[in-house]
């Protein structure tokens, strides 16, 4: 159980409003009708996950099923978010999918070294992007068994 | 004869006549003995002068010092008016020269630094002096010398002269000249021999000096070479530092290209597609056509950025050298191509067992580019054949090749093939951006090899490459 009943939440950490809109559009078109929470930078993402700042008082036992994490983010970047998640007992097993524009070797290495569960490069072609999002949603929300608490 | 001896003799011989007779007899005996002693003294002095000359050779390598000391000594010993060392100018054919060192009587003019030109010397006499000829003239006005020769000698107030060649090895370097100025002088055999010996010693000094000069020149040359090497090394170090900085900058640049340049393309493509899906009934055919064009241009741009990133990565990445099974790699790429386009009829012929030393990732990019090209340029045919193999070159280094029987190219444009952004086909004929072969060339160059192509229009193309530096014929 992931502590939030049957409601599955996807945390999308994305600073680019266009990418945010396109990702949400793709998820909705494929009827992956889950709640999508959007954090626009690393600080917001950490606040949501640890119930601090703007999310003070949020029940942190209610955890997202998967985090879709961009790497290039304002304030605290994606790799730093990943590091903090893995350092914390409460989030160290949380599925994190890096979803980013770059396929630089450095980014791949760093992401996997810090313990991401998957690495997806956003394609330019929207149809491919949309298909990637669909498969992601299907896999992580429907097929994958989340880690026990 | 000593008077003490005479007194003693007289004391023992009271007869005056007998004494006179005795004195005469003794005097005849003693005089040659005294002359003998004089000669012996001269011999001793000569030996001294010679051994001094030899000692000087060991003491100093400075020609000027050796010449000066020798001139003084020889003049004293021979009681001559002038002893001078005359040097011929190099390349003057022994016609020009000057006195470079001398010892001269106080009341006579110096011959130093007075240029001498004797146009007949080089022609007539040099060859004899070169063989060691000695000239001894007792009186220049009485020896049948030529007028110009007499004139030159008179210039230095010479009356009698003794000239011995100064030889540097086999080369006539100059002359050792002994001048008598106030009166004629008959030169003695022993004097001539002595001067000859001195000249020999000076010859040794000249050779030493030459060796020394060569040695010094060599040292200077070595020092200069060393300094040049140091400078080059410094420049190299500097260049490396600069290169590293440029490389870092390039890396940062391509990192941000990778992240930032593609993002807006996704927006353009995504919202164009959204328009096509959500607002289709508000768009006529032209409007839809425009959106399709926007999308395909966006995707080309995306591909272009990806290919440029690959090209730049190929240049920047660290190289490794390990065994790479090229045949297996080629087969895998061919299988992938066939699987991605199952409708096409393509025969692949991959020569098995080809293995090279190289960077596996770069070599994969290389084969991927060449085989994809072959696939692309045979796409208009119902049936096609694509080969991968190796041929033995004359120099023993294998040349690998990828051959297709597709549209080929005109050999006129062969030089353009490997330049970035150069395309030989219109965009609507075959998709591409002209970076693939530039990438191939860069990978081959990084392995120290070369790449070249053969082809003909409608008759296919063959791309050859080697992966090791080949011996370049001089």
UniProtKB/TrEMBL annotation, chain A:
**Chain positions found as 4-aspartylphosphate:** 70
The record ties this protein, via InterPro entries, to:
CheY-like_superfamily (IPR011006), Sig_transdc_resp-reg_receiver (IPR001789), TCS_response_regulator (IPR052893)
User: Which parts pass through the membrane?
Assistant: none
Biological processes annotated in GO: phosphorelay signal transduction system
Where is the secretion signal located? none
Name the Gene3D superfamilies on file.
Answer: 3.40.50.2300
Classify the source by domain of life: Bacteria
Q: Where is the Response regulatory domain?
A: 9-137
Q: Does the keyword Phosphoprotein apply?
A: yes
Determine if Phosphoprotein is one of this entry's keywords: yes
| A Pfam family matched in the record | Response_reg
Q: What is this protein called?
A: Response regulator
Q: Which organism is it from?
A: Scytonema millei VB511283
TrEMBL record, chain B:
Ranges in a coiled coil: 208-253
Q: Which SMART domains match?
A: GAF, HATPase_c, HisKA
- This enzyme's EC code(s): 2.7.13.3
Instruction: Give the enzyme class.
Output: transferase
Q: Show the catalytic activity.
A: ATP + protein L-histidine = ADP + protein N-phospho-L-histidine
- Which residues are in the Phytochrome chromophore attachment site domain? 62-201
What region holds the Histidine kinase domain?
256-471
Single biological process term from Gene Ontology = osmosensory signaling via phosphorelay pathway
Tell me which Gene3D superfamilies the record gives: 1.10.287.130, 3.30.450.40, Histidine kinase-like ATPase, C-terminal domain
Record's keyword terms, sorted: Coiled coil, Kinase, Phosphoprotein, Transferase, Two-component regulatory system
The GO terms describing molecular function are: phosphorelay response regulator activity; phosphorelay sensor kinase activity; protein kinase activator activity
Domain of life, per lineage: Bacteria
Q: Which family does it belong to?
A: In the N-terminal section; belongs to the phytochrome family.
State its role. Answer: Photoreceptor which exists in two forms that are reversibly interconvertible by light: the R form that absorbs maximally in the red region of the spectrum and the FR form that absorbs maximally in the far-red region.
This chain's protein is named histidine kinase
Q: Which organism is it from?
A: Scytonema millei VB511283
């Amino acid at each position: 159980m992931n502590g939030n009943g049957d409601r599955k939440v996807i945390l999308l950490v994305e600073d680019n409003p266009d990418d945010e809109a396109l990702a949400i559009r793709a998820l909705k078109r494929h009827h992956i009708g889950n709640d999508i929470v959007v954090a626009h930078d690393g600080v917001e993402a950490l606040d949501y996950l640890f119930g601090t700042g703007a999310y003070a008082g949020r029940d942190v036992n209610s955890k997202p099923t998967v985090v879709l994490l961009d790497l290039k983010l304002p304030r605290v970047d994606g790799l730093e978010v990943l590091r903090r998640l893995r350092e914390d007992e409460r989030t160290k097993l949380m599925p994190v999918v890096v979803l980013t524009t770059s396929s630089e070797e450095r980014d791949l290495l760093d992401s996997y070294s810090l313990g991401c569960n998957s690495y997806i490069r956003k394609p330019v072609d929207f149809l491919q992007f949309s298909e990637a999002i669909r498969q992601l949603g299907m896999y992580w929300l429907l097929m994958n068994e989340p880690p026990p608490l | 004869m000593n008077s003490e001896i005479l007194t003693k003799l007289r004391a023992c011989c009271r007869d005056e006549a007998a004494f006179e007779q005795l004195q005469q007899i003794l005097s005849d005996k003693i005089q040659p003995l005294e002359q003998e002693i004089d000669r012996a003294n001269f011999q001793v002095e000569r030996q001294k002068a010679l051994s001094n000359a030899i000692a000087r050779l060991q003491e100093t390598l400075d020609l000027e010092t050796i010449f000066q000391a020798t001139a003084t000594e020889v003049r004293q010993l021979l009681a001559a008016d002038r002893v001078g060392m005359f040097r011929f100018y190099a390349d003057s054919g022994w016609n020009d020269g000057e006195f470079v060192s001398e010892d001269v009587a106080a009341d006579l003019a110096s011959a130093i630094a007075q240029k001498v030109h004797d146009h007949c010397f080089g022609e007539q006499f040099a060859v004899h002096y070169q063989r060691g000829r000695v000239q001894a003239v007792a009186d220049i006005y009485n020896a049948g010398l030529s007028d110009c020769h007499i004139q030159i000698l008179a210039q230095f107030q010479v009356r009698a002269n003794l000239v011995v060649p100064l030889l540097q090895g086999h080369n006539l370097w100059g002359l050792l000249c002994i001048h008598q100025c106030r009166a004629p002088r008959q030169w003695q055999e022993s004097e001539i021999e002595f001067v000859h010996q001195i000249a020999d010693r000076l010859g040794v000094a000249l050779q030493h000096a030459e060796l020394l000069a060569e040695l010094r020149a060599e040292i200077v040359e070595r020092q200069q070479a060393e300094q040049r090497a140091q400078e080059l090394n410094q420049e190299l170090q500097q260049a490396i530092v600069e290169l590293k900085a440029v490389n870092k900058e390039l890396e940062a640049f391509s990192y941000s290209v990778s992240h930032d340049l593609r993002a807006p393309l996704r927006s353009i493509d995504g919202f164009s597609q959204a328009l096509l899906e959500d607002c289709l009934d508000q768009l006529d055919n032209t409007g839809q056509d425009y959106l399709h064009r926007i999308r395909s241009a966006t995707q080309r741009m995306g591909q272009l950025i990806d290919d440029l990133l690959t090209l730049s990565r190929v240049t920047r990445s660290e190289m490794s050298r390990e065994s790479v099974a090229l045949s297996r790699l080629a087969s895998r790429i061919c299988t992938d191509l066939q699987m991605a386009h199952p409708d096409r009829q393509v025969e692949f012929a991959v020569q098995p067992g080809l293995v090279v030393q190289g960077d596996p990732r770069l070599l994969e990019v290389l084969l991927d580019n060449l085989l994809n090209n072959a696939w692309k340029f045979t796409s208009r045919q119902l049936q096609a054949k694509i080969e991968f193999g190796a041929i033995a070159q004359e120099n023993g280094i294998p040349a690998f090749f990828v051959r297709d029987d597709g549209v080929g190219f005109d050999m006129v444009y062969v030089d353009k093939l490997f330049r970035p952004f150069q395309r030989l086909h219109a965009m609507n004929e075959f998709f591409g951006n002209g970076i693939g072969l530039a990438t191939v060339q860069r990978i081959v160059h990084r392995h120290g090899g070369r790449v070249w192509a053969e082809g003909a229009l409608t008759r296919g193309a063959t791309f050859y490459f080697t992966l090791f530096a080949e011996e370049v014929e001089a």
